[in-house]
Amino acid sequence: xxxxxxxxxxxxxxxEHWEKSxxxxxxxxxxxxxxxARIEHADALYVGNxxxxxxxxxxxxxxxxxxFVGLRGIxxxxxxxxxxxxxxxxxxxxxxxxxxxxxVVIACGVEKMTxxxxxxxxxxLATAADQEYEVSxxxxxxxxxxxxxxxxxxxxxVRKEEFAGFTVNAHRNAAHNPYAMFQSPxxxxxxxxxxxxADPINLMDSSPVCDGAACVVLAPAELLGGRAKARVLAxxxxxxxxxxxxxxxxxxxxxxxxxxxxxxAQARVTPADISVFxxxxxxxxxxxxxxxxxxxxxxxxxxxxxxxxEIGIRGRVPISTMGGLKARGHPxxxxxxxxxxxxxxxxxxxxxxxQVPGANIGMAQxxxxxxxxxxxxxxxxx
Amino acid sequence: xxxxxxxxxxxxxxxEHWEKSxxxxxxxxxxxxxxxARIEHADALYVGNxxxxxxxxxxxxxxxxxxFVGLRGIxxxxxxxxxxxxxxxxxxxxxxxxxxxxxVVIACGVEKMTxxxxxxxxxxLATAADQEYEVSxxxxxxxxxxxxxxxxxxxxxVRKEEFAGFTVNAHRNAAHNPYAMFQSPxxxxxxxxxxxxADPINLMDSSPVCDGAACVVLAPAELLGGRAKARVLAxxxxxxxxxxxxxxxxxxxxxxxxxxxxxxAQARVTPADISVFxxxxxxxxxxxxxxxxxxxxxxxxxxxxxxxxEIGIRGRVPISTMGGLKARGHPxxxxxxxxxxxxxxxxxxxxxxxQVPGANIGMAQxxxxxxxxxxxxxxxxx
Lengths: 382, 382
Description:
Number of domains of chain A: 2
Largest interface: A-B, 64 and 65 residues
Shape of chain A: globular
Helix content of chain A: 25-40%
Structural class of chain A: alpha/beta
CATH architecture of the largest domain in chain A: 3-Layer(aba) Sandwich
CATH topology of the largest domain in chain A: Peroxisomal Thiolase, Chain A, domain 1
Oligomer: homodimer
Largest sheet of chain A: 9 strands, mixed
Order of helices and strands of chain A: EHEHHEHEHHHHEEEHEHEHHHHEE
Strand order of the largest sheet of chain A: 3-2-4-7-1-8-11-10-9
């Protein structure tokens, strides 16, 4: 099994790209990553995407995008794991390189969510949940997360305003990320006063509907070690049941525990070694549950970490360092690749005003559904 | 890189499964394959599926199905390449085992197409084509194939009735396959008189809308060689442009040429070594084009092979030996796995009345779209 490195990264700004279709967004991210990697060809392309079938009537993105970027003839496939699709594409890319079957592999996450009606987007996002046992009862994806947040507040005696720090941190960091959707800081007061979406989740607990694409180029260390921007120490996937009511305990992300433990073992690190943790803050409650599952907080204490000293750039466990899903934006099938791109920026010391001092090991964790699929990558600087 | 073997196969009958949902179909095929492989656990599951998002509002099949078959905690992802999704899942499984990242891997293709309206199914299938440059002009997926067939007939002076042999062969073989949808032979007269769908494609040129699931269990030869039912000699993917009008030549499947050549090179075989060729006969025209692309017929001569002496069980190049897409059925995302299961049956000498004498090397080729993604596997008996 070969060691895998990242030799190039690329991303488009996240936002409402009315003037660009899905294939153009993917094109822009891939061209940027290929230029960054100084390559003009690749052996394979794996595309992470969740919603293009539902929202734009387009499946078959592997061939579509590979051809559009001028790579006719190569291997190209789409990989899907709901909102975890981006990291899933990277995961398959890592296998392709580690196996020796391919040398230079592109993994691209792309999503185009805005060019449709809100009703279609809402039902599209609900395809991440269990259609027959959850969605058919009328619940939306936000609704499922609202149930989790309400239960968390009840079970552990946490007040709504205690979650504010997650959003304040994300927006503050996004202000210095030119690729972020919301480059404006907010206050805790703004958080508390935001309009309600699905009680207790308000607008400031929720990541936005948006468009974007991000890309990494993977290669074997033995061939292209000199171009390494980061080393892939771990790549791990674990699943739980899809329906939240089937979980052993709704407030414990068993798949995140399993995925993180596998990743720590592969990388031979402990939580204390992680300099940067790009977690899946699709909703504030997911930040709290993710911090607990990854071993940074005891059960019920994740929300208490929403302070600068804990999660800020100079905190104990910096999270959402480039804005996270909340403020950089959450183009669902692209998010997992954005997270990895941002970890590489941190490890290379290229995170600008958001640079975590001395960052040398970073973890990116992408979640599909309300915790059913969890994909964890641990990267090291070179 | 480790050698990969198949240690178990499973399939459901193909048909209209009104009483079973998608997860139940996948469950049945996976349970059968796990029993066949004599395993009670697996490290990973890759699901091939094209349409569940569009037709049943359900994405995220990796976690859904892994949990439903009792494999909570493992790695599970969905892989999509339109009608090539089944073989795409096997392809990712091969990488997972070859790399050493996983030992026992399940690849399952599943599709549930019947429980919706014909209009929804038609627009779902069109997601395999280019939405912005083909489908938006009003063409359906059958329509695209009709254009190819018409052009083929014009260009090479082939008469419609000359294609009859492909369908007659498929139905005759399906009659002896208990998993096939249409277990009844037809005559050339039935073919010619069948109702027109999209001129010149009639009902007997077209594979049916149906439900089904098929599954293989993959493992490394070095660990479980004693349980091998077949060896994977080659696994290759190549893409062409999605839109047919962008092709170098609409009547040459460049991706099939590239995919087959890669596979022949990996397996170190030539077309003459192939005992069985399970090709992608979604429409009769695709049989002709596939035979040409794989090197069994010169350009324009593929349709002339539609005779018993060429493609029959005892012919020079036996195809659709268990009924093919036309008569076994074409549950799109499952088809690629059915093809591989059937090749394994042939290599094990377990194809019953359809047994190809002395079959020792078999090729399965699964196509996404009208030739945009082509995935080829070559297997050898043990």
